[in-house]
Amino acid sequence: MSGKSKALVNVVDQAVAAFDPPLPLAIAFSGGADSSALLLACHARWPGLVRAIHVHHGLQEAADGFQLHCEHLCAQHAIPLKVCKIDARHEPGQSPEDAARQGRYQALIDATTQSWVDDEGRELEPVCSIALAQHADDQVETLLLALSRGAGVAGLAAMPFQWQRAGLQWFRPLLAVPGQALRDWLVQKEVAWVEDPSNNDQGYTRNRIRAQLLPVLEQVFPQFRSTFARSSANCAQAADLLSDLAASDLLAVGVPPRIRDLQALPLARQSNVLRHWLLSAYHTTPTAAQLAQLVAQVGVCTTRGHRIHIKVGRGFVERQGASLGWYNS
């Protein structure tokens, strides 16, 4: 193994050594290189306190083979495994990727609520946290996709290292680790993994970024993974500050927002507080064009008879007396 490969292997061990989740810990385990390395590294650090959850999407012929591989690897290392089969077909208007992602998250949550037993049938402690195996290359791809959509600071923050959902702590401990490091780590340990055929499908934008853009970035900006990560971290900090400001402004303008009080705010803060109101109260997000139109209408709403009725997110914002309201029908 070359010196560079040995250094990459050390990065994997260092990332897991710095990882300090509440235990027991469940790993979302696909059987691919990324999740295989994360599962075995965590199992080596916390033997007996790591579980595996494999989500069977049923979307491709290779899925049954993925499950068999996961079962074999977990049996070999005495790691408790749950297999969750889901229907990941997308609804009209929903992307296949989003449908699979939402189904996968729900399956992981459901698996943690079930009882766990070891290979001798003894009941185990319930899971406290879940780790996902996205790595530094995944983070760069997410950032580039956000840039291509013209995302704001929340989108450019890319994937968080830690968050809470459904009463569980969620982690991505490998976000500073290059994807090649995980493969080198597995080769050193003589561990096989499965390759998802869809990863080579150039019809997916993310795959084209991985195959065509990342090698060029490697040549031009060798440290791009760490520098891009710093930019995402800065955007995450800015997004937190904007969220705090929006929450404060929403207290001032009221729920629902009073038009006159909105007009007293600078335009950027109007946009910020309206986006926050729609997301926090109705779980809907306006497009940039919808938000700009709404702010413009608020600005000229100076007479009693002025009407506001604008498509926003999944519904409509309208004037309701002295305030704004939202509905969908």
From TrEMBL:
<keyword id="KW-0819">tRNA processing</keyword>
<keyword id="KW-0067">ATP-binding</keyword>
<dbReference type="InterPro" id="IPR012094">
    <property type="entry name" value="tRNA_Ile_lys_synt"/>
</dbReference>
<comment type="similarity">
    <text>Belongs to the tRNA(Ile)-lysidine synthase family.</text>
</comment>
<keyword id="KW-0547">Nucleotide-binding</keyword>
<dbReference type="InterPro" id="IPR012795">
    <property type="entry name" value="tRNA_Ile_lys_synt_N"/>
</dbReference>
<dbReference type="InterPro" id="IPR015262">
    <property type="entry name" value="tRNA_Ile_lys_synt_subst-bd"/>
</dbReference>
<dbReference type="InterPro" id="IPR014729">
    <property type="entry name" value="Rossmann-like_a/b/a_fold"/>
</dbReference>
<dbReference type="GO" id="GO:0032267">
    <property type="term" value="F:tRNA(Ile)-lysidine synthase activity"/>
</dbReference>
<feature type="binding site">
    <location>
        <begin position="30"/>
        <end position="35"/>
    </location>
    <ligand>
        <name>ATP</name>
    </ligand>
</feature>
<feature type="domain" description="tRNA(Ile)-lysidine/2-thiocytidine synthase N-terminal">
    <location>
        <begin position="26"/>
        <end position="211"/>
    </location>
</feature>
<keyword id="KW-0436">Ligase</keyword>
<comment type="function">
    <text>Ligates lysine onto the cytidine present at position 34 of the AUA codon-specific tRNA(Ile) that contains the anticodon CAU, in an ATP-dependent manner. Cytidine is converted to lysidine, thus changing the amino acid specificity of the tRNA from methionine to isoleucine.</text>
</comment>
<dbReference type="Pfam" id="PF09179">
    <property type="entry name" value="TilS"/>
</dbReference>
<dbReference type="Pfam" id="PF01171">
    <property type="entry name" value="ATP_bind_3"/>
</dbReference>
<keyword id="KW-0963">Cytoplasm</keyword>
<dbReference type="InterPro" id="IPR011063">
    <property type="entry name" value="TilS/TtcA_N"/>
</dbReference>
<feature type="domain" description="tRNA(Ile)-lysidine synthase substrate-binding">
    <location>
        <begin position="259"/>
        <end position="311"/>
    </location>
</feature>
<protein>
    <recommendedName>
        <fullName>tRNA(Ile)-lysidine synthase</fullName>
        <ecNumber>6.3.4.19</ecNumber>
    </recommendedName>
</protein>
